[in-house]
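Researcher: Checking consistency across runs. Here is Methyltransferase domain-containing protein again:
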Amino acid sequence: MTDDEQIEYRQLAIEDIDFPAEEFDIVISSLALHYVEQLGGLFYKIHHCLTPSGAFVFSVEHPVFTALARQDWHYGDEGEKLHWPLDDYHREGLRQSRFLEHNVIKYHRRFQPI
């Protein structure tokens, strides 16, 4: 939505980024990392293209939301919301779900210390 000559738009899988070393002061990823199966390689590429004092700022879907592929409330007999199910929270990995009327694959990861 801009015609600024300083902006270069690229459309590709996030895992396919390939930028020179120390190219950027900041890398921002908004709600995309939960679609990436192997984060280690992507994190390496991001670290590679950041300057030594650069920052990586990201957001992901909360793991409570991705615990079940269904991603919906548990409803009572009258259709009332009873609780958000956490079944499979501790089982990390692939989840097939619907998002904006499309079938998508997400990768559930728990919050854990690193």
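Researcher: Does this match what you'd expect to see?
Model: One thing to look at in this run: Strands lie at 24-30, 50-59, 74-75, 81-83, 93-99, 102-108.
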